[in-house]
């Protein structure tokens, strides 16, 4: 046996393209998690074979329902286990005989006291003895716009499902993953693979990162971490992944209260924050400060590729907001570089004398649609790596038609253009129009600066 | 003359309850700023006398239109001047003969090069010679839900007007004030007095603070500062005001880019940030980090009074979000104090064993409406100064009826309860329901923590 020394890279790829899924505890009764899972597989259009398992029924959703996993008799990829905790061990033993992996949705394990911990140890033993791979327990499982698997058991009317996108999300917390997905969906943003592994008795972020590094459907990875499964393996996997695509992480449970909360939440020992920071740096992970930052990062990376430099051009029609964005950008380590003389001269002949042709560029309340587009096109031609456009909708000469032309410009330019539009009813309607056309809008100066910082991979001076 | 030594407290109160207003440059042509101002005075139901002034018209809005200010012949409180910059000096000279004060909306002064600066000096001379008091130029002027004056010249369809509330906002930047107002309006929040004084040749934040300190309609003051009008007077005025009500400030133009942007924006020399921080501390001002923080503060202070202690109870049905809020609260200097034994015992008999009866309190996906209310009522009875409730709408037993009961509980309790509900379509609809009932919702852990920190006046360790 040399596996202890030369660790084999495991194959967990079947979690991400299963061709057969058993739903253990499948139910035709609305409101039950397993009902939602059955419905979701239908809604998603999962094209593989579904095996409902529940001794109480003979058919569910016009599919034959099996009285036990054993009754399925053929090999399957995944068993999704959604039954009360005390029944899980027996079901998992059955599953191990014919399934490559199991997602255990059920809660009531390590997070729920001594009895739960004992059952959780039982899961670990089965994994060790049989070789079945397990996600969970106490998790939401997988939401995947490639394989069309969705085990997130919150009904669609309470939690929107994002469309196809390039971000994959790994999260110990199911609620964290759910609200990010829900928000992204409501803004028309997409995701690739989302994994909530909860108590993480077996498969965790390290193996998922190993898979995602080579996954062509994943353009960036966002991690929510309370703790780490295997520090060394994590740093290696993350470093390999970060060489190919941006890897972002938010570490929670940083301080005293957070640490004890995390412990009672997923039973995780969160460890010292400083060690995580060092590991993130070593692995090339972009550390994100909070939920807001993670959301901003997802929205930016959904449409823009990271850039090499850190020179940002700020364009606005509202002087005050421009000043605040300049501050926020510098706080995030971006370079709000002065406008080059040639660009200044070039724009001076195109714009009225009272426009502020600097960085930030203040086009004032007199701005027209045309001038905004000129400022962006000319501004991004040479020196700057990206632009933040603080587009306030007050100026009377700005019309709704600007949205389409703006979107066309953004899609044509090779450099990221982040739109920052805080405001009320009218602005929110315009923001919605941008989102419907696939362009995210950032609704505060800070939010835009955080997103820009992710694109240049800088995190403040 | 002893005024140089014993400075008299000036009276600028007529700006905030004028009984007569002249609109110089009044126009019946939609799209013109002065048209918007005339319309706004009508919409607001301003009950004083309005004198439109424009030699081209004999009547506007069924009001007699005067060919010049001089023609008005009676004393008036305010002249709102909205004409091209080169005409302003003459108009102001006329106004000085019969008006106590003028709001100069026009731009093209100190912010627009040498010629503008000369005209701005001209304004200063007129102020000095005649004693007329001036707000502006290059400003939005006043939006006031007490006096019903509104000189913000952006049409209502582009910028919503907030209803009556307790927050007064002082801002050098008109756009900053506008977007905050627009956002608050769209969320059903109110304001008291908003002043944008732009280039600030005369009346600035110090005198406004002196007025607001004693203004019974103002419960809290929020300041957006690029620079300060008179450092010593400002600290005195702010300190006096802060003894009576919370005073918040955001300082922009902190760093290099921000500083040069502010200079070209309102001609303001922003000065060293460290000096401002020291002044804020001395005056008892709560410093706010950015636009997001200012918005959060306005929303919290619109409904809740500041508290004495800093112990915060966190209640949630989503473990992960609870952990992040705990972190964010500690980062903001709040005390996420452990649950007292007696409270723990009390709740242990009311809740299932698998709920996390700690701080954060994790009511899990099994939570009911009733249990949420119990947790808040019992939790806030003794030890905690406030609560943040991270209400995620996934749990199937939470129903829309919770909103009304929640609002009733929040209004009845003597302590602040901040709701934090990030999420998509369903959540946003529930958030809207809260807002329609006058309760703000914070849509990220960080946002809720920032708001909580304002209520305890702490800004991080």
Keywords:
homodimer, 461 residues, 6-stranded mixed β-sheet, 15 helices
Number of extended strands of chain A: 20
Strand order of the largest sheet of chain A: 8-12-10-13-14-15
How far the N terminus sits from the C terminus of chain A, by CA atoms, comes to: 49 Å
Which of globular, elongated, flat, extended, rod-shaped describes the shape of chain A? Answer: elongated
Portion in helices of chain A = 25-40%
Most extensive interface, chain pair and sizes = A-B, 89 and 88 residues
Instruction: Report the total helices of chain A.
Output: 15
Q: Give average pLDDT of chain A, whole number.
A: 93
Pick out the low-confidence regions of chain A. Answer: 1-8
Radius of gyration of chain A: 25 Å
Major sheet summary line of chain A = 6 strands, mixed
* Helix/strand/pairing category of chain A: alpha/beta
This entry's quaternary arrangement is homodimer
Beta-strand portion of chain A reads: 15-25%
Give a summary of the structure in a few sentences:
Two copies of one chain form a homodimer. With 461 residues, chain A is of the alpha/beta class.
């Amino acid at each position: 046996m040399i596996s202890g020394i030369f660790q084999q890279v495991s194959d967990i790829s079947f979690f991400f393209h299963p061709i057969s899924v058993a739903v253990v505890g499948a139910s035709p009764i609305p409101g039950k998690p397993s009902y939602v899972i059955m419905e979701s597989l239908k809604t998603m259009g999962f094209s593989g074979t579904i095996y409902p398992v529940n001794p109480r029924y003979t058919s569910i959703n016009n599919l034959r329902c099996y009285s036990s996993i054993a009754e399925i008799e053929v090999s399957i990829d995944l068993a999704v286990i959604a039954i009360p905790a005390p029944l899980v061990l027996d079901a998992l033993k059955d599953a191990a005989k014919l399934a490559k992996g199991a997602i255990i949705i059920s809660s009531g394990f390590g997070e729920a006291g001594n009895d739960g911990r004992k059952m959780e140890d039982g899961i670990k033993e089965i994994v060790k003895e049989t070789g079945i791979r397990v996600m969970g327990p106490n998790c939401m499982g997988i939401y995947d716009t490639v394989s069309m698997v969705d085990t997130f058991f919150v009904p669609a009317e309470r939690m929107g499902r994002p469309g196809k996108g390039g971000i994959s999300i790994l999260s110990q917390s199911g609620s964290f993953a759910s609200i990010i997905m829900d928000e992204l969906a409501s803004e028309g943003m997409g995701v690739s693979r989302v994994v909530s592994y909860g108590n993480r008795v077996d498969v965790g972020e390290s193996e998922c990162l190993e898979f995602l590094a080579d996954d062509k459907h994943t353009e960036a990875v966002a991690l929510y971490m309370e703790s780490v499964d295997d520090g060394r393996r994590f740093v290696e996997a993350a470093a390999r992944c970060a060489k190919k695509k941006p890897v972002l992480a938010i570490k929670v449970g940083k301080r005293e209260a957070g640490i004890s909360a995390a412990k009672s939440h997923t039973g995780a020992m969160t460890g010292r924050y400083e060690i995580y920071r060092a590991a993130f740096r070593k692995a090339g992970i972009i550390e994100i400060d909070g939920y807001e930052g993670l959301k901003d990062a997802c929205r930016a990376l959904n449409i823009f590729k990271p850039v090499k430099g850190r020179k940002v051009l700020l364009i606005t029609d509202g002087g005050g907001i421009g000043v605040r964005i300049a501050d926020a950008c510098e706080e995030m380590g971006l370079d709000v570089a002065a406008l080059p003389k040639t660009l200044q001269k070039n724009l001076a002949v195109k714009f009225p004398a009272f426009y502020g042709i600097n960085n930030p560029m203040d086009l004032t309340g007199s701005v027209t649609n045309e001038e905004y587009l000129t400022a962006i096109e000319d501004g991004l031609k040479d020196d700057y790596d990206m632009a933040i456009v603080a587009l306030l909708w007050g100026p009377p000469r700005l019309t709704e038609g600007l949205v389409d032309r703006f979107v066309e410009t953004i899609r044509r330019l090779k450099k990221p253009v982040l739109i920052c539009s805080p405001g009320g009813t009218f602005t929110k309607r315009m923001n919605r129009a941008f989102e419907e056309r696939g362009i995210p809008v950032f609704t505060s100066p800070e939010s835009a600066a955080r997103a820009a910082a992710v694109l240049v991979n800088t995190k403040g001076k």
